[in-house]
Amino acid sequence: MPNGLFQKILVPVDFSPCSEEAFRVALSLARVFRSEVLLLHVVDTKSLDTLNSLGLARLSEEAGQKKRLRHQARLNARRLLQLEEAKGLEIRRLLAEGTPFVEIARTARTEKVGLVVIGSYGGQTGRVEKIFFGSTAEKVVRTAGCPVLTVPLSTKLAGKA
Predict the structure, then answer these.
(1) Residues 6+ apart with CB under 8 A from 105
(2) pTM for the complete prediction?
(3) Nearest to 70 by CA among 51, 86, 52, 48
């Protein structure tokens, strides 16, 4: 079915309002370019490791934590796939574990993605961490190996967040 400029569009989501806006933009582009959409969620195991090392979560509970996070991601992805804008499009769900920008860039390369559409702010990163380490979107721009479209949170949605 794909025959346009971007045969595959990768949309990494953390289910924040900004990433959901990026998903909507990707759906619009997929309709124009007749692209397959890859909906990716990365379970951020670095955050789990941090909680475990601080003693805020037990190492023995890590498998259960990951299982709950994967389950929640599947539920959230299903909700996105039920959007009216998603009807009639070829959408494949992907779930990965690791550091988000690394897994996003890896998926972009292994799936031979033509475009990554990502929210410019996910809401999962505090300001101080963002200053020192940069945002996930910024790291994806530098490492994806293909064009990356960053989508800001629209002003109408920003008031709701």
Answers:
(1) 139, 140, 143, 144, 145
(2) 0.83
(3) 48
Domain-wise residue ranges, the chain:
8-158
Q: How many CB atoms lie within 10 A of CB 118?
A: 32
3-state secondary structure of 124: coil
pLDDT tens-digit readout, 120-143? 876 544 554 444 445 899 999 999
CA 156, CA 108: separation in Å to the nearest integer? 30
- Would you state the CATH architecture of domain 8-158? 3-Layer(aba) Sandwich (3.40)
Would you say 117 and 11 are in contact if contact means Cβ atoms under 8 Å apart? yes
Comparing CA positions, the residue from 58, 81, 77 lying closest to residue 69 is 77
Each residue of 28-48: pLDDT tens digit?
999 999 999 999 999 988 776
